[in-house]
Amino acid sequence: MGDLENHFGDDASVDDETNKEILAFLVKNSAETSTMQASWNFLNSIGNKDIIALSQTDYWKRKHKDIPKEIFENPKVKSISNCKACHTDIEKGLIENENIKDISDFK
Ligand code: HEC
Predict the structure, then answer these.
(1) 59 CB near ligand 1 (under 6 Å)
(2) Is 7 helix (H, G, I), strand (E, B) or coil?
(3) The pTM is what?
(4) Domain boundaries in the chain?
(5) Each residue's pLDDT tens digit, 1-51
(6) CA neighbor of 51 nearest in space, from 42, 39, 64
(7) CA of 64 to the centre of ligand 1 (A)
(8) How many CB atoms lie within 10 A of CB 34?
């Protein structure tokens, strides 16, 4: 939240008040305070490396290594960071196996 002018190549800057609100939300809902297994796995995978994108962790890479690159380029997916395209429950903070879309839909 400290350098939103350079947010993965985009200018995502917001006013001070909004920044404070988002920061508070992020701290409150951070992996450190979560009991979800995936959160633990991500934290362990980050270790003391300087990683700010989940998709750069070894854990994420291991879990998605069998998915062909073209799938992530499919217009319905668009990008690796569009977790929701495949994990339909991710906005509820969940990543349940039964809610992962069949990726053959994206071929
Ligand atoms: C193109 C579809 C796709 C996208 C986009 C995607 N995933 Fe996945 N993800 C999968 C599939 C398929 C699996 C199941 C892999 C397996 O177990 O064989 C998976 C597995 C996972 C798992 C492991 C779940 C478990 O219980 O083992 C996590 C955590 C996860 N994804 C997080 C993410 C996050 C976070 C993002 C966005 C940064 C993301 N994924 C983007 C398809 C996707």
Answers:
(1) no
(2) strand
(3) 0.87
(4) 1-33
(5) 999 999 988 999 999 999 999 999 999 989 888 888 899 999 999 999 998
(6) 42
(7) 6
(8) 14
